[in-house]
Structures are given as structure tokens and as C-alpha cells.
Amino acid sequence: MAQVLRVEQLSKSFPGVVAVNDVSFELGEGEILALVGGNGAGKTTLGLLLSGIHHPDTGRMFLCDRLVDFASPNAAIRAGVGMVFQELSLVGGLSISENLFANRQPVGRMSLIKWRDLYGQTAEFLRRFNLDLDPRRLVKTLSMGQQQILEILKAISNNPKVLILDEPTSSLTESELGYLFENVHTLRTQGMSFIYITHKLREVFQIADRVMVMRDGRYIASTPVRQVMEQDLVGMMVGREIVNMYGAASNALGPEYFRVEGLTKTGVFENLSLRLRRGEILGLAGLVGARRSDAARTIVGADTKDSGRVVLNGRVQEIISPADAIRRGIAYLTEDRKEGGLFVNMPVRDNLIAPSLRRFVSRLDLLSSRKIEHYASEKIQEYSIVTPSSATKVIKLSGGNQQKVFIAAWMGIHPEVIILDEPTRGVDVGARAEIYRILRESAATGAGIIMISSDLPELIGMCDRIVVMHQGRITGELTREEFSEERILTYAAGLALPAAQAPRAAAEEHP
Amino acid sequence: MIDRRVTIPSKRPAIISSLRSIIVFREFAMLLVLVVFVIVMSILAPIFVTRGNVEAILLGLSVEGIIAIGMVIVLISGGFDLSVGSTLAFAGVVTGLALTAGIAAPVSILFGLLASLGVGLVNGLLIAKMKINPFIATLGMLITIRGLLLVLASGRAVLNLPDSFTVIGQGRLFGLQYPIYVMLVLVILGDLLLRHSRFLRQNYYLGGNRRAAWLSGINVDLVIIVDYGIAALLAGIAGLLITARLGSSSLTVGTGTELRVITAAILGGASLSGGEGSVLGAFLGALFMGVLANALNLLGVDVYWQNLITGLILIVAVVVDVVNERRKSRPR
User: Fold this and answer.
1) Among A232, A341, A442, B89, which residue's Cβ finds the most Cβ atoms within 10 Å?
2) Domain A256-347+410-492, CATH among 2.60.40.10, 3.40.630.30, 3.40.50.720, 3.40.50.300
3) What is the pLDDT of residues A9-39, one digit of tens each?
4) In which residue ranges of chain A is CATH 3.40.50.300 found?
5) d(CA B224, CA A507)
6) Residue ranges of A 258-287 with Cβ closer than 8 A to chain B
7) Terminal C-alpha separation, chain B
């Protein structure tokens, strides 16, 4: 097999993280290489480097034995490297033809578009791929699956030598998936090579010739698919050392007081049920697309649900807006603290009081600056927030201290249930330990905590119980004795554990 | 091998769907409303359909009709231009001063057009290269240019412009004044080019999904700069025509034009979030506003009521759109 792509020692850093670290690999002509790894393994970043969207810090790429260095996605496309992204890049208000041939429409005199040629070429192209669609049809009238297929065809229409597919199947039905795989196989016999980024291990075995594993930005291994088992892959994807900075769990859990029953948002997640005891830290594990954040947003009323209910202290709670959730003592700390959490251009003290403004008003509904100042300096001390003063803008603080401000602010409403979404993303080790301590202390006072995290060692270190989700469904539940990264990842990838290893079926009731 | 076609039943015959892609819902609705409106008015006030009145409507429309072409292009790309009113006056003053200095009419006109084009290029560069929000950049230019022209003209209108210049606004062909023809030619040309030229078509990609446009190899910055250039140049042309019609360079002409033109474009189907709209739609929107104002005058409705009615119509039109969009995007 002739070599089409060779990558040597590619690296790329972003502030605070080495996303791709010294990665080398090769790709043969007509080869389908699956690229797997946990969240944050650097798979997508590697794709972005290969397709000219990001520029590598160091390292070299050879396409057909010629050194290449792409200045833009356009340069990569022209050289023959295309990429299909997780999020769609189609324009809904334009026709299938115009999306397929974006900026490559056939033109005549005065650079006017030749519509008949455009539609003709599109029809021919669609026929080649057995798609019975009107070239003039507007993209927004297509189903999500059809749009995703169109997105892939758009990249294929550039006739690339190497096509990178990043999680291309998230909204495809089974028959659409079969259709996609068939066409990928046809194209590879014509010499097109594929890098198939996925976390669905099942698909690796369905489509790929070879699989490459990444972890923490590094190349771990690559092997022909025929010579590897699913469990081996999971083992390679994990394999981190666990440092104990999580503190000791308290042994005395209180009674069960919070339940989510059969929560459903059609097409997003189905029949989600959770139970939480006072003082308990419940982990919610899963990979990208598991819909954990969607579930959390729905619980606190930021998204609408289709069915299901939330029960707190024995009473069904009607929660249709975040304000309702706050009134009932349910706090949700979003994963993007800068976008949906903090007011980054405002001082630390204003952020600290934001969720509980009412407590700081004196008569006439005026805010009392004395009360605020007092409260802020107290919290800064209590949560060991490192800041020059309470008047410093939050954006000036480090990620870890921003997160502490965020948590301190929400603890101010004295929540009974705290839902945290990726509480330590982009937080350095020192601040992490602080955050873990804060969470343990809150749990000790009787609050229940639901912690969504993609950091498996963190979940294992912190939680009393872990519920695993895969594509909007709960696929497993593990008690402390049963915790292992392999088990979590297996459930998260939507695989069933081998019978001997399976600790418990997901639906089974606790005594 | 099994034929696994992904088939989708088409809801309507191809001919209708292709017709719909040419005349979108909004343009068709505008046209229908206009026709009904004209019929009703011709019964209520027969003077409405007389030649003189029709000419008055079209002449009044010429300024905003021309500017609407550029505005809708900018809106489609996801942008916004508040500076067109100032630019209009600026072109008139620059040309007026050149004429007063004894420069020949064609050269003076060129000066005026270049001045307006310059405003547009500054807008475009600020927005594309400096990444300044279009609203802020063009609001700044609105105020700056209005100030600049006051400084240039020392606060006084430039009067008594020569006939060699005023003819472009006052001359007639087949009994209609030139500005009407200029407007009609520009509207037809603009509509065709926005539909069929590859360059202008790129605006729909930009407004629909800017990142996707960039990933598809579109030179996003260039398109934005050209867009604001076109919008300002068209405002300049409109400014010269009205200056010629008035015979003097007014310093206050065009005040508030930007908002009326944006209203017209939105009535005609453009969206402030970009990706939608057409020149024909924007023109119909402007025509509708012109006809409405004229009709209210003829019916003796107090001028104060006219703003109120125009505002309500804008809100109703947008609400209809939102409801329509929600109905369509409901999950199947």
C-alpha cells in the first residue's frame, strides 16, 4: 500500500494545555484509520492541524512524500486534505446545490452563476451517491441525518486524497449509517484515504483497517483492527496514574431526598432517573454526546422537558426556569463558566453576590455596599480565592480562581442540591485540590452533589456512586467498590460488560 | 448489492418548489399586499392612480430605493450600516463644493462618488480587519461624517449649483425624471447580480454561517469590505441625485434615512441575523412604505400617525415571520 500521508512529531499547545504532543503516524492510500481516545485526548485537534485550521507549533507533514504546510483550510483542501466537522457548516437558507458547491459554482461571463450547470452537476453527483434529492431543495428542509450526509458529501466533492471525519455519525439513523459506510468503502477502493475520529468503538470494528489510540495529546499505539479486542482499546485509552488529592469520603450518608424520575427530552435523552442522598457525591460519566449537560440544564429548567419529574424532599417540584430551581435550592454550575456562569468583566465581589442579590438589599431595595464588602471579603478568605482585591475583575484571575469564585457565588444560596458541570476543566492542580475540599465540606453539611465530569480519575476519587450515560441513556451504575476506568469507559462507549465483570444492570433497584 | 437509497418523499411538485426558491414567501406577500392596497386606494382616492401622483411616489422613493439595494446586501452578509444617511449628504456636499470651486460637473460628480466610496471602505476595514461590531463602527461613522460635512461646508448649505449638474436630478426622459430610471436600473441590476453573480452570492454564505463560509474558502474579509463599499457608493449616488434635484447641497438631508431603509429591507424579508433577503424584497419594502405614506397623505391622515402606522406594520411583519418560522421548524 502506497503511503499518502506521513506526520512527524506534530505538536500544538494552547494556553495551559498541550493538546497534541509529539504525534507521528502514517496513512496508506485507500486506508481507513480509526482514531480513538477519551475526551481531551487531542483527536479533534490533530484533525484540525492536518486540515490547516490550526497551525502546528512544531512537526512536519508529508502528503504523497511532499512536505506540506497549510496556511488555511482552503490550502489544505486544494492540496487534497479535507475535514468534516462535528458541527454542521451548511447554510440552511440555500439549496443543496449551493451548499455542495459553495464558492465553486460553475460560472460564465461576468462571473455569473450558470444555474443549469450547477443543478446538472449536483444531480449527477447525487446520483453517483444514490441520493434521490432535488438539487434545488433548501438544506433547512432536510433531516439532521440528511444534512450530516450532505456535509460529508460536500467534503467528498472536493475529491480529497485524505478525508478526516470527526464523529460523523452522531445524528445518523442505522440505515443512513449503513449508507455512509458503503460509500466510504467504495471511495477507498478508488484510492481515497480516511481518518475516522470516533469514540464509538463498535464503529471502529465495522469500518476501519487500523486503529490508532491517543491519550492526553500523545500517540499511544496503532494496530490493525483484526488484531485487537475492544477491551484492549479501552485499556489503552485509560492507563493514567491516579494521584490522591480527593480527600476521604465521609461514611455517613443521609437519607435519599432528591429524585429525577423518567426525565425525557425526545431526541436528546430518554427516561433518565437519578437518586441522591444527603451528603452524597454522585458522578455522571459519559463521552461527548452522552447528553449529560442537556440533562442537567433540563433538571434546572433552563431547557424544556417532554416528560418526567423532579422530586425534592418528597414533593414534586414544578421547575420551568432557572429561577424556580434557585428558589428550591437547586444550583447548577455550567461547564462554560465564562459564557454562562460568571460576569467576567465585573469585579469579584459583584460575581460573589450575583445569585443571592436579595440578601444584600437594605430598605428601598438599594444594595448595601457595606454588607457586600463584608460578605465578599469573608468568602474570599473562606474559599481561598487568590485575588488582589474584591474589586478586581474576574477575567484577570486564573482559571482555578475563577472557578472558586463561581462555586463560592452559588454556595451563597445555600443549595440543597448542587449540580456541577466539569468543575475542574482548565483548572490547575493546586486549585483542583481546593475545589475538592470545598465540595467535600458542602457534602458534609448535608447537601447532595451531582458532578458531571469527563475526568475519570476525578470521578473515581470524589464520588460515592457513578452513573454512566451513553447517547442520552443511562447505561450503567457503579458503586464505590466497583469503580474502575475500564468499566466506566465500557459503559460510556455503549458496550455491555462481559457477564463475569458486570457489577449490576442499570435498571435494577437498590434495596 | 442492496440498493440502499436514502429517499425522502417530496411534499410538493418540483416546479412549485423551484418557483418558491425564486419568489420567497415574503416578496410574494409584499407584492400581494401592494396590489390590494393600490386597488383599495384607487377606489378611495382616485387621484392616487394619476400619473402625477405615481411619479411623485417614484421620485420620492428613488433615494431610499437605491440605498436599500446596498443595505440589503450588507444585512444578508450579517452586517449593518447606519452611516448611509450621512454618506448621502457627504457626497452631495463634496460635489457641491467642487462645483462651486469651478470644477466641471462630471469631475465633481466623480469626487462625490469617491468620497462616499471612501466612507464605505473605512467602514469595511474597521469591521473586517479590526473586528469592530458593525453597529458601533457605522454609528461612529454616522456621527463623524455628519460632523465632517458641517466642517467642510462651514455649517452652510451649498446653494445655486449649475444646471450642468442639476440636470441629472431634474432632467426628464419620456416625461419621467432621471432619478426614477437610475433607481429602476440599479434595482434590476442589483437583484440580478445578487442572485446570479458568484461574488455577491457569497454574502448568503457569510450571513448564514460565517465560519462555514471561511472553511469553504470564501475570502470573508474581502466580501465584507466590498459590501460596505457598495452600500456607501449607492448612498453617494442617491445623495448626488437628490442634491441635483434640490439644486443645493443640504447639510441635513438623509437624517434618519438609515433606519427607514433598514425598515424597508426587513419588511422585504431581510433578517438582522443575516443570510436572508433580496434586492427585490427590499425594494418592495421601500415601495410599500412610500405608497403608504402617500396614501395616508391623500386620505388626510395626520403626519404624526404615519410613523405610528409604519412602526406597527414593521412589528406585525416580523411577528408573522417568527410565527411562520416556528411552525416550520417544529419537529416532525
Assistant:
1) B89
2) 3.40.50.300
3) 999 987 656 789 999 999 999 999 999 887 6
4) 3-88+147-237, 256-347+410-492
5) 56
6) 266-267
7) 32
**Cα(B57)–Cα(A441) distance, integer angstroms:** 75
How crowded is residue A262: how many other Cβ atoms within 10 Å of its Cβ? 12
Residue B238: C-alpha distances to residues A49, A271, B64, B97, B138 (Å):
48, 62, 8, 17, 18
CA of A391, closest CA in chain B: separation in Å? 28
Mutate to test the interface with B, among A104, A136, A152 (most CBs of B within 10 A): A136
Residue B69: which of B177, B200, B161, B176 has the closest Cα?
Answer: B200
Task: Tell me the count of A-B CB pairs closer than 8 A.
Answer: 99
pTM summary value: 0.73
- Give the pLDDT confidence of A243-275 residue by residue, as tens digits: 467 777 777 788 999 999 999 998 889 999 999
Question: CB atoms < 10 A from the CB of B17, how many?
Answer: 17
For residue B66, give its domain range.
Answer: 48-270+278-296
Q: Establish how many alpha carbons lie within 13 A of residue A500's alpha carbon, considering only the half-sphere containing its beta carbon.
A: 0
Query: Going by C-beta distance under 8 Å and a sequence separation of 6 or more, which residues neighbour residue A197?
Result: A34, A35, A36, A43, A44, A47, A164, A165, A166, A167
Residue of A53, A73, A178 with shortest CB distance to B4? A178
